[in-house]
Design brief:
Keywords: DNA-binding, DNA-directed RNA polymerase, Nucleotidyltransferase, Sigma factor, Transcription, Transcription regulation, Transferase. This is RNA polymerase sigma-54 factor RpoN. One of its GO terms (biological process) is DNA-templated transcription initiation. The chain is α+β, with helices and mostly antiparallel strands. The protein folds into three domains: 17-49 and 232-360, no CATH class; 86-223, no CATH class; 365-434, Arc Repressor Mutant, subunit A (Orthogonal Bundle), CATH 1.10.10. The protein contains 22 helices and eight strands. A four-stranded mixed beta sheet has the order 3-2-5-6. It has a two-stranded antiparallel ribbon with strand order 1-4. Strand 2 and strand 3 form a beta hairpin. Helix 5 (86-95) packs antiparallel against helix 6 and helix 17 packs across helix 18 (338-345).
């Protein structure tokens, strides 16, 4: 091996800060972009960020909706709304009770020992030890807390949570209470025949208990959200117009970005002073940011227009279904990389004739039927939903029978495993759990 200095020419991809910024801005949602621009304005005094005025383009197509929207709080207002927390709700109920200062202090401590879902986070014995109470006093304290609203709060496990709610019902169902108390595990596993034999009740009666249990809240504390409420604001509008579709970007969502003219005197100074160099650097950042935002807008618009062309029938026809469409098809059509299409459709929502839809959801995989035509997975899911909705509830269709029906009626070959996957995505339980018993 010889040591020495040699010249070697290589090619490598270097991601500049500007390129990285362009990628981030493209994948940001409208809300995330607004937050990013506000952060940048704090770092760059030459960056001027002003809220956009309402864009009146296409007002003849959206005038009715615009009137409704103007009466509503802005997206920024919504983002700062906070709901009352579970602790706030429970502490307010403590004030309504006639308790001593010591009892209130103990009750408050117990409340702060709950999880966000309303369950007791630690063993009651630990709480009693810290409050210097015996277990009997702790049970009485917990019993009081469990009488609060919402029903089920302060439970130590799911079984106790359900029982607390069942006991509050105006028309108590003692069979349900008995099943949850003594047979909860076999009941959850649908071993109903054994329960019916032991309790000498019909399967239809157990089914009524199951229907009742499904109306209860297994996590009563989650109705109180401590995090800011997140709202989706469509960045695009897809509107039918003279038998075609018009795609429009909602410019008023994104602030106007430009140079802050209060600092123009820094730019007019001659020489290479530190302040002059700093100003020029910040000007370049503003110029690049303005260019990148414009590129983001054009890319999203170009992608949305291409998607709208492919899914035209779906938007114009109420009974239309999504056609098979992939990221690669759109990328090839508008001559960009597949990852660019992915970023341009993630967290981007459009107000369409079919409701507010994420652009990403308009892509769907395809299956080939016996005639060689392709069918989208969304179409198969729609067929499955319609079929299951009309099935005999006493003899629900198995995944294998659904696959056979699709092959016979729709000439589409779908494996039983794929049927199970689509069913899970639709939130439809297996046939054994859909079965109903006659009363």
């Amino acid at each position: 091996m010889q040591f020495g200095l040699y010249q070697q020419q290589t090619t490598s991809l270097v991601m500049t800060q500007e390129l990285r910024q362009a990628i981030h801005l493209l994948q940001y949602s409208a809300v995330e972009l607004v937050n990013y621009l506000n952060e940048q304005s704090l770092d760059n005094p030459l960056l001027d960020v002003k809220e956009s005025k309402k864009n009146e383009d296409y007002s003849f197509l959206t005038s009715n909706r615009r009137t409704q929207q103007e009466s509503q709080p802005s997206i920024i207002d919504y983002a700062h709304i906070n709901r009352k927390t579970l602790n706030d709700h429970l502490l307010a109920q403590v004030q309504e009770l006639k308790l001593s200062k010591k009892q209130k202090k103990e009750m408050n401590y117990l409340i702060y020992s709950l999880r966000e879902d309303g369950y007791l986070a630690r063993p009651l014995s630990e709480v009693c030890e810290e409050l210097q109470l015996d277990l009997e006093e702790g049970e009485e304290l917990l019993f009081t807390l469990q009488s609060f609203e919402p029903a089920g709060v302060g439970a130590r496990d799911l079984q106790e949570c359900l029982l607390l709610q069942l006991e509050r019902l105006e028309n108590r169902n003692f069979l349900a209470e008995q099943i949850i108390t003594h047979y909860m595990e076999p009941f959850a596993k649908r071993k109903w025949k054994n329960i019916s034999l032991v309790l000498k009740v019909t399967l239809a009666e157990i089914q009524e208990v199951k229907d009742l249990i499904q109306t209860l809240d297994p996590r009563p504390g989650t109705q109180f959200i401590s995090e800011p409420v997140q709202f989706v604001k469509p960045e695009l509008r897809i509107v039918p117009y003279e038998g075609d579709l018009l795609v429009h970007i909602e410019d008023d969502l994104i602030p106007n970005v430009g140079l802050n003219h209060h600092y123009e005197q820094l730019l007019q100074q001659e020489g290479d002073s530190e302040s002059t160099q700093y100003a020029k650097q910040k000007v370049q950042q503003v110029q690049w940011l303005v260019k990148t935002i414009q590129q983001r807008k054009q890319t999203i618009l170009k992608v949305a227009e291409a998607i709208a062309r492919h899914q035209k029938e779906y938007f114009l026809n109420k009974t239309g279904v999504l056609k098979p469409l992939t990221l690669r098809e759109i990328a090839d059509e508008i001559e960009v990389h597949e990852s660019t299409v992915s970023r341009a459709t993630s967290n981007k929502y459009a107000d369409t004739p079919r409701g507010v839809i994420e652009l990403k959801s308009l892509f769907t995989s395809s299956l080939q039927n016996e005639s060689g035509d392709t069918t989208s997975s969304q179409s198969i899911k729609n067929w499955m939903k319609e079929l299951i909705a009309t099935e005999n509830k006493q003899k629900p269709l198995s995944d294998a029978k659904i696959a056979t029906w699709l092959q016979t009626e729709k000439q589409t070959n779908v494996s039983r495993r794929a049927i199970a996957k689509y069913r899970d995505e639709l939130g439809i339980p297996a046939s054994s759990k859909r079965k109903r018993y006659e009363s």
